[in-house]
Structures are given as C-alpha cells and as structure tokens.
Design a protein that fits this description.
With 554 residues, the protein is mainly alpha-helical. It folds into two domains: 245 residues, no CATH class; 244 residues, no CATH class. It is 80% helix and 0% strand. It starts with a helix and ends with a helix.
Length: 554
C-alpha cells in the first residue's frame, strides 16, 4: 500500500511540474526543430567532450600506473554541481510547492511524501547528469577495457552516483527547516547555499592553482602525487565515489553490493528523518505565511504612478532582485563571467598562456585580432543566454499574465522594457568582463570601445531571441519561482541558439581570415555591419512575433 501511494504521488507531482509543449501546427514544428538544435549543439557535444576527456586522461593515467583518477574528477564535479544546483530546488519542492495544501490532508506518511518529492527532484535534476556519466564510462571502458562486474557497476553508477548529493540536500533541508524558527528563514538558507557553493567551487579552483600550466600531463602528475586537494576532500565528502571506483577497477561483486547497500542506507536515513522532522518544518512555513508582514502606512502620494513605463521597468527589476530563485540564477550568476575572465590572467595554469597570447596580439597579427573578437562575441551570447532573464520574460508573469493584457502600456513598450531589463543585467556583466579582458590585453582605447560595442550588440541580439522564444510558448503554470526556471525549455533553446550563432560567427571569422587578404580594420567593420543588420532584423521579427502571441493569448 505504501509503495502504491509513493508511485501515485510521484506520478502526480511529476505531471504537475512538466512544461506542456505544442506538438501540432507551426509551434509544434518549431519546437521540434529547436529540440533537435539543442540536442545537437548542447547535449551531444557536451557528452562527447566529457567522454573524450576521460578517454585521454585514462590512457595517460594507465601509462603512469594510474587508472580511474580522470573518471573520478568528472564524477566529483557532477557531485558538486548536484549539490550547488539542486539544494534550493529540493528546498522549494519539499516546503514551498503549492500542492502541499492538497496533499497534506490525505492519509499519507511524511516519509512517503518526502520520497515522492525527492524522486521527482531526482529525475528532474539528473537527466543531463545521466547522459554525461554514461559517456564518461564509455570513454573509460574504451581506454581501460570492459569486465562483467565493471559493466554492471557502471550501469548502476549512472543512476546511483547522483543520489548521494541529492540525499545531502534533502537531509540539509529537513534539519534546517525543523530547527530554524526565524521568519527570514529562506534568506538564511539562501546565504548558506551560496556559502557552500563558493566553498565547493573554490576547492576545485584550488586544485588548478597548484599547476604551472594548463595541460593534462601536469594535472595527471598532480593527481598521481596524491597532492590534489580537490579529489582528496571530495573523496571523503562523497564517499560512495571511491567505493564505486573500487567495484569498477577490481571487478569485485562485493564492492558493487556495498555501493548499492550504502545508497539504500542513505536513502533510508533521509526518509527516517523525513518521518521525524518533515511535518514540523511544513507547519512552521504555514504558520509563517499566515502571520504575514506589517504594511507601512504611507500617503497615497507614495503609491501614485507618475511614469507607467518607469514603474513597469522598476517592477521587472524588483521581481528579479527580490525573488530568491531569480536573484540567484538570473542576477547573481552573472558575477561568474568577470571572475572567470580575470582568473585567466592570474591563475598559474592559464597566466603563461594568456601572457604569450597578449604578446602575439600586440604584434598585429590578423588571426589574433579575430580570436579576441570572436571571444567577445561568444562570451556575450553565452552569458546572456545563461542567465535566462530574456527567455523567462513572460514565464515570470505566471498566473498573473493578465497584468500584461490589461496594464495601460502598449505591448511593444512592454516588450522593450522586458528586453531593457535583460540588456542591463546581462550587459553590465559582459561589458565589465570585456573591459577586464582589454585591460589585461593592453588594447588601445579605440579597440576597447569597439569590443565593448560589439559585446552590447551581441547581448541585444541574444536578448530579443530569448524574448521571442518565451513569447511563443511561455511556461505560465508553475508551482514556485524555481519551477519557472526548472525545466523551462525556452531557456534551454535560447542557449542552443546562442551556441549556433556563436559558431556561425566563428565560421565567418575563419573564412575572412583564410580566404581573404583583408586587414583587421576591414574585418572588424564587416563584423560590425553584420551585427547591426542582424540586430535590426531580429528586433523587428521578435517584437512583431511577440505582440501577435500576446494578442492571441499564446
């Protein structure tokens, strides 16, 4: 009976959170095409690259009397990402989903409810991880050979290795919600999630600071010496990984059974804590939400709208900055890019290469100029698509979409304001990143201005593409703000298109370099003209298409 309740609950929860996609007509064809592009440009290349890296590292490690250290690196990285990107998701799935008010009155044990919600989060968050692990194991087996128990362990590892990071997230949420009684609980948890994320990513970065150059040979040497801080610490935190690697390398059925058994024990511990602590946290959240906040009484002058467009723009900015989900995944995530660009010039592993490239750049070679230009374009497109501000412009309205229909602001103006928000948040971080790049490359003032203009044009194009995608079929039915971002295919498709466009520009750069004798100034002018013309056309098509979708209620 309990198993039947668990399966039924899981099915209902998963069905309520899925994004319905059109399967007929022009929209259906368009989304099938976008799905093919996303699969071809993101998922397959990513999996292939991971598999190839594991293959190369395993070959080199076998020659140095090593074995699974390259595979271990990939698995531990996946474990870190599982914690960083799933902690707040599981937190909201367990405690802030609107379906709780319908599920709690039912005669269901807390452990069954926790198990169903955990299973939903597991499948929702781990699909890409399944594919990456599968390809990593293929790369390993090609290099090291296949054995019966190793093959069985790998098959189980694809599905079980993502479990422990999510179990950690589930236990963390249960304990925190049971014992933290402050009203601003979500802000406290959000801070702790950020702190844990910084620590885990910092450990990985620290493993690279030990290297003098960025090469597989140097990294392998650091692994074999046993001095890799990242792998040493992660092996203790995610302790199932070393056990799994033992089963894989020793072809041992005992290590394999131990690997399975430990996961069963970990899940049982989480469910036991769920029975003891879950309802306490749920009741606390319910009580806090009913208490509400005191509203400060002000004069009507404070609330009077003096400029509708400015108020609309402020509303969009406040939603992004005040909502924990949007603040973390749409706003704060932009900080990554300036840090990464600056790190390239300071980390020992990349500093020598960047210094050498800067010297080549100053010699005036056309190819080096094109490489910097293409780097700026790729960075701009990727950063804009990754924060998903544009590709969730209409999705963020959710059940309040009628606001767009009835607010006394023209549709074109609303679209412009939504685009402006994305351009500002994305543009600031991209412009700062490009400026850091130009400073360290010692670019001239005209070159710096040119690269920053190119970056802005790229941000504008990617923004309007994202808005057009979201206007076509927004995900308006979601349980919480994390649900608006999680499983939103529009953001995924925007990323795929950004990659395709970046690849097209790289191809154009290669053709201009290889088949012409143009100088740098001419090539720069060609890229500028292409971007301006493309921006104008994309804006026209995006605005017209979005307005038509709003009028037709999507």
């Amino acid at each position: 009976m309990e198993m039947k309740n668990f399966l039924l609950l899981t099915k209902v929860i998963m069905r309520n959170s899925e994004m319905d996609m059109p399967d007929k007509g022009k929209k259906g064809k368009a989304y099938k095409t976008m799905g093919t592009i996303a699969l071809s440009c993101i998922m397959i290349p990513c999996c292939f690259i991971v598999g190839y890296i594991v293959y190369i590292m395993t070959q080199a490690l076998l020659e140095a009397n090593g074995n699974t250290e390259g595979l271990e690196l990939i698995v531990q990285l996946m474990s870190i990402f599982g914690v960083v990107f799933s902690l707040m998701v599981i937190f909201n799935v367990l405690y802030f989903s609107s379906d709780l008010e319908h599920l709690l009155p039912l005669p269901i044990k807390p452990s069954a409810l926790v198990a169903a919600k955990f299973t939903h989060a597991y499948f929702a968050e781990s699909v890409m991880e399944f594919m990456i692990l599968f390809c990593a194991f293929i790369g390993y087996f090609i290099a090291a050979g296949v054995h019966p128990v190793s093959l069985l362990a790998a098959a189980a590892g694809v599905f079980l290795l993502p479990v422990l990071p999510l179990v950690y997230c589930g236990i963390f949420c249960l304990v925190v919600m049971a014992f933290f009684s402050k009203v601003k609980l979500l802000k406290n948890v959000d801070f702790m999630v950020g702190l844990v994320s910084v620590l885990l990513i910092g450990l990985f970065a620290l493993s690279f600071t030990q290297l003098d150059s960025l090469s597989i040979d140097d990294y392998i040497q650091g692994i074999m010496s046993g001095d890799n801080i990242f792998l040493n610490i992660m092996g203790k935190i995610f302790f199932t990984v070393p056990i799994f690697l033992k089963a894989l390398t020793e072809n041992s059925i005992l290590w394999f059974l131990l690997f399975i058994g430990i996961h069963i024990i970990c899940i049982a511990v989480m469910l036991l804590l769920g029975n003891l602590l879950y309802m306490r946290g749920v009741f606390m959240v319910s009580a806090s939400s009913k208490t509400g906040k005191k509203v400060k009484k002000d004069t009507a002058e404070v609330y009077r709208v003096k400029n509708p467009s400015a108020s609309y723009f402020a509303k969009e900015c406040k939603v992004l900055c005040r909502t924990p989900a949007y603040r973390k995944y749409c706003v704060v995530v932009n900080i990554i890019w300036p840090i990464l660009v600056a790190a390239m010039f300071f980390m020992p592993a990349t500093k020598n290469f960047m210094d050498s490239f800067a010297k080549v750049f100053h010699r005036g070679y056309v190819m080096s100029d094109i490489i910097v230009l293409l780097f700026v374009i790729v960075l701009s497109f990727f950063a804009t698509a990754m924060n998903s501000i544009a590709s969730t412009s209409f999705t963020r309205e959710g059940a309040h979409f009628s606001f767009i229909k009835h607010v006394p602001i023209p549709y074109k103006t609303q679209i412009f304001l939504k685009a402006l928000v994305s351009i500002i948040f994305s543009g600031i971080t991209v412009e700062v990143s490009v400026f850091i790049l130009c400073i360290h490359m010692k670019c001239s003032v005209p070159s710096t201005i040119y690269f920053m203009v190119i970056a802005l044009l790229s941000v504008i194009m990617c923004t309007y593409i994202g808005i057009m995608l979201d206007a076509t079929h927004p995900k308006l039915d979601w349980e919480d703000e994390y649900g608006a971002l999680r499983g939103n295919l529009n953001a995924f498709f925007n990323m795929a298109l950004a990659i395709v466009i970046a690849m097209v520009f790289c191809l154009i750069g290669y053709l201009l370099y290889d088949f012409t004798t143009f100088r740098t100034a001419v090539i720069f002018a060609v890229f500028m003209a292409i971007l301006i013309a493309a921006d104008i056309r994309v804006i026209q098509v995006s605005v017209r298409h979005s307005v038509n979708c709003i009028k037709n209620d999507f």
